[in-house]
Structures are given as structure tokens and as C-alpha cells.
Specification:
The chain has 138 residues and is an alpha+beta fold. It has helices at residues 14-24, 35-43, 87-99, 116-119, and strands spanning 5-8, 47-53, 56-65, 70-78, 104-106. It is built from 4 helices and 5 strands; from the N terminus they run E-H-H-E-E-E-H-E-H.
Length: 138
């Protein structure tokens, strides 16, 4: 197995973030062409955990939390070449640890990942409600 280095990385660059979103397929559901939105997503995240191999970003988790009750894991991306090696599971574990294990960790699964989360011990919750994102005015 490849040696992976994990760390909290609050100053992750837009370029690296977008690149790993593309290599993970998460870019299909993220506004990667909206630089201001990506910048704000990174700036306002409470916890960003990265996974790197030889300095190259191969995984990231980005979460918003109150550090007391709940943690919303808004992005979990692992380069397709590195999937199925436990990297996503470790990113989740470290994110939850950084936010506080006393918080509930919540995420919305990407369609391709529906089967992944039960496999790593997460429980499905049947009640999720949302209002769709409105595009910014140019």
C-alpha cells in the first residue's frame, strides 16, 4: 500500500481542491467553474483534512461544524486511482475527530457512493430536506 500522509490543511489552494474534485468525479456535482464560490467554500470550512502521496493531493474532506453538536461533511473526495484503500474512511475518521467525536457527523451521499457509507459503518437516515442552490448573479 502507498504511504499516505494526512493533515489538517485549512489553507488548501483552490487549484488543488478543484483538481482532486475532478480526479474523484465529485466535480460533476460541485461548482468548479465558479472560482469565487470555490474560494468561499474553502475559506468558510471549519475542518479541511487532506490526504497526500509524495506531496500530491489525492484526497480531501471539507466540513462545517459547530464543534458542539453536529458536523456536516460537505465534501469527501478521493482520486479514483486511490479509492478502495481506506483513504475515504480515514478522512472521515480524522474529520470527525477534529470536529469532536461528541458531534453527529452528517453527509449527503453522492449517487455513486450510496453503497460505500453503510460499508464503513455509517447509518442511513431517511429524513433529509433541502432547498436547491440558486446560481449567483454575474
Amino acid at each position: 500500500m502507498t504511504s499516505v500522509t494526512y493533515q489538517l490543511e485549512p489553507d488548501l489552494s483552490q487549484e488543488e481542491f478543484k483538481d482532486v474534485l475532478v480526479r474523484s468525479t465529485l466535480a460533476e456535482r460541485r461548482p468548479v467553474r465558479e472560482a469565487a464560490t470555490i474560494e468561499t467554500m474553502l475559506k468558510n470550512a471549519d475542518v479541511i483534512v487532506t490526504a497526500r502521496v509524495a506531496g500530491v493531493l489525492i484526497g480531501v474532506s471539507r466540513a462545517i461544524t459547530d464543534f458542539a453538536y453536529c458536523t456536516y461533511l460537505s465534501d469527501l473526495a478521493v482520486d479514483e486511482q486511490y479509492q478502495r484503500q481506506g483513504i475515504g474512511r480515514e478522512l472521515i475518521r480524522r474529520t470527525h475527530e477534529a470536529a469532536g467525536l461528541h458531534t453527529s457527523l452528517i453527509l449527503l451521499a453522492a449517487p455513486k457512493a450510496q453503497e460505500y457509507y453503510p460499508h464503513i459503518g455509517m447509518t442511513k437516515h431517511e429524513s433529509c430536506w433541502m432547498i436547491a442552490r440558486q446560481p449567483r448573479n454575474p
